[in-house]
Amino acid sequence: MNQASSQRFRAGFIAIVGRPNVGKSTLLNVLVGEKISITSRKPQTTRHRIVGIHSDDTAQWVFVDTPGFQLQHRNALNRAMNKTVTEVLSSVDVVVFVVEALRYDQHDQQVLKLLPRNRPVVLVINKTDTVKDKEALLPFIERMSKEFPFADIVPTSAQTKSQIKDLLMTLRPHLPEGQPLYDVDDITDRSERFLAAEAVREKLFRLLGDEVPYATTVEIEKFEQEGELRRIHAAIIVDKVGQKGIIIGKGGEKLKEIGTQARKDLERLFGGKVFLEVWVKVKSGWADDERAVKSLGYGES
Ligand SMILES: Nc1nc2c(ncn2[C@@H]2O[C@H](COP(=O)(O)OP(=O)(O)OP(=O)(O)O)[C@@H](O)[C@H]2O)c(=O)[nH]1
Ligand SMILES: [Mg+2]
Q1: Could you tell which of 39, 45, 100 is best to mutate to test the pocket of ligand 1, judged by most ligand atoms within 8 Å of the CB?
Q2: What is the chain's pLDDT, residue by residue, as a tens digit (301 residues)?
Q3: Distance (Å, rounded) from C-alpha 197 to C-alpha 213?
Q4: Nearest CA to ligand 1 atom 1
Q5: Which residues lie below 8 Å from residue 61, measured CB to CB, with a gap of 6+?
Q6: What is the residue with the minimal CA distance to atom 11 of ligand 1?
Q7: At what angle do helices 192-207 and 253-270 cross, to 10 degrees?
Q8: Which atom of ligand 1 is closest in space to residue 98's alpha carbon?
Q9: Residues bordering ligand 2, an ion, CB closer than 5 Å
Q10: CA 215 to CA 300: how far, in whole Å?
Q11: Is 39 exposed, middle or buried (0-12, 13-18, 19+ CB in 10 A)?
Q12: Which of 16, 17, 21, 28 to mutate to test the pocket of ligand 1 (most atoms within 8 A of CB)?
């Protein structure tokens, strides 16, 4: 390949897949340089396909964050989330398969089984900051290289932003030559309305206990822009009446905190003032109702 052809612009889609909680969304956010995908310590935080775009003079990397693939198909929502993963896998140029450093179990293995054999798959070993002795990574890399014919293996830490540039450089040659797929200033294909609903949903995952977040979703009922001010009305939808009180909290404190934290994130992301009103609505059994799940925007790809 001569100098000129090696410099041709490249652009393509890269799926980020893995079991829940390995750091896929955190990785997407550092690759893009903005927080567009929500993250939390709880598994199954991401429920949608979320595009995050990184462009420079040589290439455009279009990353597609996906829900963590899970084995338990507990309800219609879980099935829709897994469907999103398999559909994304069939439509990208390259796959990034994320595992945690020194951890590989049957949950990761289940995702490995879904990986395509006809496209490059790059293994990302994330959370390397948790490994004190970096030498310990070598036998793990060795073992993983026997599990699948990975095109490359890159250890990263999304948290400390380590090896992120290396990951971009490793992925670049796997992207097809071609013109940018999105405007070079775009960072996502998602609307501000969607990002607003996700910001509220993140706070539910971060501020509530271990069960209620899984029974909730968020619907934006009003989104208006007046100059630099965005007026947003968000409804938190719960499964059962009892969950409503938990979200509102004593004297309304919890709901207030959810609203305040989400508003601050959105003001940072949109670069302008946000007026956010949040309330709670009960839709019995929504997460196990195929039609409700679909109408709330899940399972699309
Ligand atoms: N120590 C450490 N923690 C990380 C790193 N990357 C992500 N995390 C943490 O891991 C947890 C899960 O991160 P997410 O980015 O939400 O993980 P995910 O794979 O998108 O999870 P799901 O959407 O639920 O599938 C969060 O608490 C992150 O802060 C990392 O490189 N090092
Ligand atoms: Mg995620």
Answers
A1: 39
A2: 444 455 799 999 999 999 999 999 999 999 999 999 999 999 999 999 999 999 999 999 999 999 999 987 679 999 999 999 999 999 999 999 999 999 999 999 999 999 999 999 999 999 999 999 999 999 999 999 999 999 999 999 999 999 999 999 999 999 999 999 999 999 999 999 999 999 999 999 999 999 999 999 999 999 999 999 999 999 999 999 999 999 999 999 999 999 999 999 999 999 999 999 999 999 999 999 999 999 888 987 5
A3: 14
A4: 127
A5: 11, 12, 14, 31, 53, 54, 55, 168, 171, 172, 175
A6: 41
A7: 140
A8: 19
A9: 24-25, 45-46
A10: 19
A11: buried
A12: 21
Q: Which ligand is nearest to the CA of 103?
A: 1
In the reported structure, the alpha carbon of residue 8 is separated from the centroid of ligand 2 by a whole-number distance in angstroms of: 32
Supply 266's token pair: 């959105």
Quote the ligand 2 centre to 45 CA distance (angstroms). Answer: 5
Which residue has a Cα nearest atom 6 of ligand 1? 23
The whole-angstrom separation of Cα 170 and Cα 235 is 42
The closest-lying atom of ligand 1 relative to the alpha carbon of residue 65 is 20
Residue nearest atom 7 in ligand 1 by C-alpha distance: 23
